[in-house]
Amino acid sequence: MEGTTKSSHKILSGTQTAKEIRESLKNEVTEMKSKFDGYQPGLAIIQVGGRQDSNVYIRMKIKAAAEIGIKCVHHHLPNSATQMQILNLINELNNDHLVHGIIVQMPLDCVNEVDSHLITDSVSPGKDVDGLHTVNEGKLAVGDLTGFIPCTPNGVLELIKRSGINISGTKTVVIGRSKILGTPASELLKWHNATVTIVHSKSKNIEKIVSEADILIVAIGKPEYVRGSWIKPGAVVIDCGINAIPDETKQSGQRLVGDVNYAEAFEVAGYITPVPGGVGPMTVAMLMKNTVLSAQSAVQKLTVKDWSLSRLPLNILRPVPSDIEIARAQIPKDISYLGHEIGLLPKEISLYGNKKAKISLSVLKRLHNQKDGKYVVVAGITPTPLGEGKSTTTMGLVQALAAHKARNAIACVRQPSQGPTFGIKGGAAGGGYAQVIPMEEFNLHLTGDIHAVTAANNLLAAQIDARAFHESTQSDIALYSRLVPKINNSRKFSAIQLRRLQRLGINKTEPDSLTEDEIKRFSRLNINRDTISWNRVIDTNDRFLREITIGESATEKGFTRKAQFDISVASEIMAILALATSLGDLKERLSRIVVAQSLDGDDITADDLGITGALAVLLRESIEPTLMQTLEGTPVLVHAGPFANIAHGCSSVVADLIGLKLVGENGFVVTEAGFGSDIGMEKFFNIKCRTSGCKPDTVVLVATVRALKMHGGGSAVVSGQPLKSEYTQENVELVTKGCENLKKHIENANKYGIPVVVAVNAMKSDTENEWNVIKKECAESGAAEVVICSHWSDGGAGATDLAEAVINASNTNQNNFRFLYDVNQTFLTKIRTIAQEMYGAVDISVPSEVVEKFQQYEQKGYGHLPVCMAKTALSLSGDPSIKGVPVDYVLPIKDVYLSAGAGFLVVIAGEISKMPGLPTRPCIYDIDLDVETGQIEGLF
């Protein structure tokens, strides 16, 4: 070899090289922390037992990690640990996104039988910084160097490179074929184009083979086995051995030597590693390098990139089959695969079968530095019995964006209630070739969130009546003794009871230290039963529960009262679930629920009733949104479903927040607002956006020619009867008149400073002349664009123009989002603003007793809350029979009640029932189960 004469002998110092590597890694970690808000590589070391040599090695690794800036955690298990305990710990660390490297210190010092190979193979290959996993070994064997390379062989390679030798084409001899060093070192050198020979205990003519080596790696475990006379002059010698031999000159009586006779080899070799101070320090250095590489790979995942989303092809049929036939004809992706495609980690997905999954809120923590995507809200004109296709448009738009425009896009929609599913309306999965699938699971139970809300709501209702009953039948002392019982002769307040004491101004923590007056104040809520506002709920349309009498049993001792059931989605708990931003926020909102007043007129809350924690427990999984997919395999987040008439009628804040992070800065989250712009969109902006802090980029306003004809004066539609001719034939005059309603909704959206794209949901009976009228009227009203869409019949391909319009509108500089009113204004001012600006009313009328209620709420400190208008969705006015754009009317305000936990005041402006009834012929007549196949029939 050129340049390797005796005069150029060099010592390859592992100590010095490792120091340089650690310094370089330290700089990389510092840059990472600075760039990604303190993001830090994490290393976990698992030790079983307490071998002294293992303790020494672990201390070295911890010291090196600290020097570099790696957070290292030592998990020390006793030698009595079982294999399952070790595996459970590894699984926990595999799923911890803050841990980038996992080391299982070998050998295991364990009294129980443990399969070491199983243990090393249980470490995730992506965190196997030791490089011992079969996957990483296999990658190395076939020349795939993208996995983790075992640390000692990698250190050997680094030292060889430091010699300056060109590895390609050299003759390399490796003495030793161990799994940890010899074999992987030979593979590594082979893939660097060396000609590699492995020598082992069964090899013959070892001396001759060694004498031809340009590079010699010795790892045989025999002291000074290789003699200087064997070595080719100028060769690079890497001595991986470390052996203790007797030496009377040393205080310890022994000294460390390698597998090479260093004194002899030094005279011949071009480069040689000392022992100690050669390969040893490199092993730890390369371990740290692998950990930093793993962290760098992980940090790249914090920056959302374009998804590699596999599109599900549609088999478009004509005529378009029923929704259920279309849905069943499509085979969905495995939901875990879809989760992987959109950047979710395995631990962030809780599978409910293979077609739906809960998404952990930990995604928000992992992606907190990620910029949000574009935020698009879909609203509609004033609804008609003919339907506008708002949900269908939402699905068609995200299918177009994600499956056809290759944009990261997620739809966020509400979970349907059982009420409409089995009643008259049906579900809300979309329709035609723009749907959520599987539609049966979407519309039936899903992951049980509505049932959890029902259970929580009714637990609170039961506690209200039970507490009132017990207070009425017990003395102060007896009541206190049961509320704070003696257990093992000791009393202790629970955390929620301590909070009540603080609210009462009683700064005591010892139950026996309370005075008689304090005991009475603590124990008695003195619920005024006439003011109980909390109703029981059920997720069924049942008109006979609209007014009931409870407490008729003799065991209730005559404590009867009038009450009622609401439908589950009308529960304030559902509104809370939809608006909560975290589990902590959910719990805080639950604590604030006001259920009644005391005899003194004070508000009584869920926290006063001691039930906040129990409610949170029932809802702990329900706060996670459910991942599903569209017909074309694009992601959908389904979560919450507050009653749109008396609540804000939007899907959850957390679903939107998660979606905005997952799609990334250039992606899109498309969500729905209930009903028209006057109700759903107004509440979306003024309630939901205030809570979430999200600023929408575009409004998509959905309309149909047929619905506009009805607003223009078309005949009433009778269920089950054919449509009149004006709906099936061209009628430009009716469309022109009906556009007044559409223009009002455009005007409403423009008042928030958001670009408006009108999506005309096309039907076969539409004509070009009718579409041209709509385009002309919308352009004059300030719409950014009007798009004719055919997603119902063509899937995402029929909404690509809509997708392009949304992309353009979202990227303009015309977004100057603003709220409609200042929450610090009086309630009457806020209500009047909504009525005049959104509904077109000239004023509001409020009875004196309702005005007094507003004043009482303001005096109690609720004046800063936004208002949630409970009004018919079927008209811009409070009269559902008036279509088009009513003018010169006064909106009557009939009542008001507080949703303190949800964080708004509900204002009743019309006849609003919170318990729908079943029609004469509900959907249940058509729904059946094929007992042979288990298939649901007649759902839609």
Automatic annotation (TrEMBL):
Residues 12-130 form the Tetrahydrofolate dehydrogenase/cyclohydrolase catalytic domain. It comes from the Eukaryota. InterPro entries: Aminoacid_DH-like_N_sf (IPR046346), Formate_THF_ligase (IPR000559), Formate_THF_ligase_CS (IPR020628), NAD(P)-bd_dom_sf (IPR036291), P-loop_NTPase (IPR027417), THF_DH/CycHdrlase (IPR000672), THF_DH/CycHdrlase_cat_dom (IPR020630), THF_DH/CycHdrlase_CS (IPR020867). One of its GO terms (biological process) is tetrahydrofolate interconversion. Its EC number is 1.5.1.5, 3.5.4.9, 6.3.4.3. Residues 150-297 form the Tetrahydrofolate dehydrogenase/cyclohydrolase NAD(P)-binding domain. SUPFAM superfamilies: Aminoacid dehydrogenase-like, N-terminal domain, NAD(P)-binding Rossmann-fold domains, P-loop containing nucleoside triphosphate hydrolases. Keywords: ATP-binding, Hydrolase, Ligase, Multifunctional enzyme, NADP, Nucleotide-binding, One-carbon metabolism, Oxidoreductase. GO terms for molecular function: ATP binding; formate-tetrahydrofolate ligase activity; methenyltetrahydrofolate cyclohydrolase activity; methylenetetrahydrofolate dehydrogenase (NADP+) activity. The keyword Ligase applies. Pathway: One-carbon metabolism; tetrahydrofolate interconversion. Gene3D superfamilies: Formyltetrahydrofolate synthetase, domain 3, Leucine Dehydrogenase, chain A, domain 1, NAD(P)-binding Rossmann-like Domain, P-loop containing nucleotide triphosphate hydrolases. It catalyses: (6R)-5,10-methenyltetrahydrofolate + H2O = (6R)-10-formyltetrahydrofolate + H(+); (6S)-5,6,7,8-tetrahydrofolate + formate + ATP = (6R)-10-formyltetrahydrofolate + ADP + phosphate. GO terms for cellular component: cytosol. Pfam families: FTHFS, THF_DHG_CYH, THF_DHG_CYH_C. Homodimer. In the N-terminal section; belongs to the tetrahydrofolate dehydrogenase/cyclohydrolase family. This is C-1-tetrahydrofolate synthase, cytoplasmic.
